[in-house]
Write a structure and sequence with these properties.
By secondary structure, this protein is an alpha+beta fold. It has 3 domains: 10-207, Sandwich (Jelly Rolls), CATH 2.60.120; 212-233 and 246-264, no CATH class; 295-379, Malonyl-Coenzyme A Acyl Carrier Protein, domain 2 (3-Layer(aba) Sandwich). Helix content is 26%, strand content 26%. The strands form 3 sheets. Strands 1, 2, 3, 4, 5, 6, 7, 8 and 9 form a 9-stranded antiparallel beta sheet that branches. A hairpin with a 2-residue loop joins β11 (316-322) and β12 (325-330). α5 packs across α7 (266-277). The structure holds succinic acid and cobalt (II) ion. Cobalt (II) ion is lined by residues 128, 130, 191. Cobalt (II) ion (CO) binds at residues 128, 130, 191.
Amino acid sequence: MPIQFEKFDVELFLRDYWQRRPLLIRNPWTDWANPLEPDELAGLACEGDVESRLILRRADGWSLEHGPFPEARFSQPGPEPWTLLVQAVDHHVPDVAALLDPFRFIPNWRIDDVMVSYATDAGGVGPHFDQYDVFLIQGLGRRRWQVGAVCDENSKLLPHDDLRLLDHFEATDEWVLEPGDILYLPPGVSHDGVAVGDDCMTYSIGFRAPSRSELIAAWYDDVLADLAEDDRYADPGLTAQDNPGEISAEALARLHAMIAERLLDREAFARTFGKHSSTRRYPDIDWRPEQPIGIGELRAWIEDGAPLCRNPASRFSFVAHSHDALSLFVDGQCFECRGDGAAFARRLCAEDGVAADPGWANEVLETLCALYNQGSIAFDRED
Ligand code: SIN
Ligand code: CO
């Protein structure tokens, strides 16, 4: 399993490249093996709860189809070069989720998903730019990547509603990637990847950067939900004004303080952000177990030695309040943890497959039970 880098200088990468400039990393893995077969990818693109797209490079321009696709779509795709793109494959295929492990030097909340593409010779998605950092791992076959100027929302696009392709693209660098090679691109760098030969698979490790408007919307929702009707302006000690039409500086200062005090509450913001950023990408998919369990059953499973694993579709982060108190955020829910519970939460956020301990306090078991019942963790059991 290619879950480790043999040669990759994380410090140097973060200092000189992350969010700054592209970097070609020639096969850094201990032993690269493509984690997913093209047929399995096509199978996922036929499933209703998986987001997928098919892009064809036709003589008269680009065309885009959205999945799910009938199986027959891939047996007779037509003569023109095509690319199949499947989003969040890590949520469904553990070996693809394992590709994220070497990138955990970046916080969990910044990681988005692993998109996987499959292209026939000369297939690609056309020159474009993304809003996010991405590591493009060549899984199978070869792809020529060209990179160009940094773009932004003023860059001219081709008139195609869905594809957001650049009207003008001039390459400043290009490389042919072989299996195991990685190209890192910061947000905004224009790029174009074209398959060299058939059976070209690329894994995009994508990151997230919340927009200011998204943050403000989430924060305002939470603030508003918390405010009481009787939390109102008050002005004891009001003095008579010369002109009743004036909104005085004193009144404005009080009004402004009513807003600022609440909006600048960092602790409350930390909880909002923890919940918001841990919300699943596809919240409509129900991962809950058929039967919810109680603490007694959970204790029995742990005593049987059943290994605990995280749902790859779930998101785990925490905010520390002190060395033994923290808020754990999983799939949009907040769990306050102290002592043993906090130590357990730190491990759960850091590593998949935490060995369950029969000696865990009730408080840990309660959190585990809630996580199991909301579908965020599972126990690998025989039955
Ligand atoms: C691809 O995998 O073909 C496209 C990935 C990208 O350019 O973002
Ligand atoms: Co891209």
